[in-house]
Amino acid sequence: MNKLEIITKEFNRVRDIPYRIALSPNEASDDCLAKAERLLKIFRDHNYEVRYRVCKIKWSDLNLPKNVTEKKHDDNCLHVYLEAKIFGEWKIVDATWDKGLEKILPVNEWNSRLDDKLAIPCREYLTPGESLEHIKKITTKKAIELDLKENGEFYKALNGWLEKVRE
User: Fold this and answer.
1) What's the pTM value of the predicted model, to 2 decimals?
2) How far apart are CA 82 and CA 76, in angstroms?
3) 149 three-state secondary structure
4) Distance between the two ends of the chain, CA-based, in angstroms?
C-alpha cells in the first residue's frame, strides 16, 4: 500500500469516528478540531506538509431541527479543517461528519487528487497564521469553560440528535 492509499484509509477511519462535541473540559471530543488534530499527526507521520485552517460559520446554515436550534447558543462559531500539500498543491482535508450522518450532512470521501468540500458552509476564511492563533485561543481551559457555559445545552441537544440519526 502506498502513502496516499494509507492516508485515504486513515482519513476514512478518522472521519467515521462519530462526531460529538465534548460537554466538559475534561471529556475527549470528536468534533472538527479533534479530528483535524488526529489527521494532522497522520499526515505529518507520512511526511506531508499539512496545516490547520479555520473559517467562521453559522450553525443556522445547517439544517438542524428546532429542538436543537431552540437551545441557547451563539450562532457564530469557528470550523477547523486541514490543508495538506499533495502534488505541490494545497488540498482541503475535512473529516468532520461521519458516515452515519450522510443522510443529513455532507460526508466527505477524501481523494488526494481533489479538494474535499468543507463540512459546513463557511462565511469567512482565516489565513493559516490567523487559524493557528484562533486554535490556541479556543483550546484554553477558560475558553472551553466559557464556550460550554454559553453553548453546552445546544451541544448536548446536537449530540443527542446526531446519535438518533445514526440509529
Assistant:
1) 0.95
2) 20
3) helix
4) 33
- C-alpha triplet 12, 120, 26: angle, nearest 5°: 70
φ, ψ of residue 115 in degrees (nearest 5): -70, 145
- In the block, cell 460537554 appears at 23
| Residues in the chain where the model's pLDDT stays below 50 | none
Contacts within 8 Å (CB) and 24+ apart, 65-69: 65/161, 67/157, 67/161, 68/154, 68/157, 68/158, 68/161, 69/154
Which pLDDT does position 41 carry in this prediction? Answer: 97
Give pLDDT tens digits for 103-137. Answer: 999 999 887 766 778 999 999 999 999 999 999 99
Distance, in Å, from the CA atom of 94 to the CA atom of 113, rounded to the nearest integer, reads 14
Count of beta carbons in the 10 Å neighbourhood of residue 52: 18
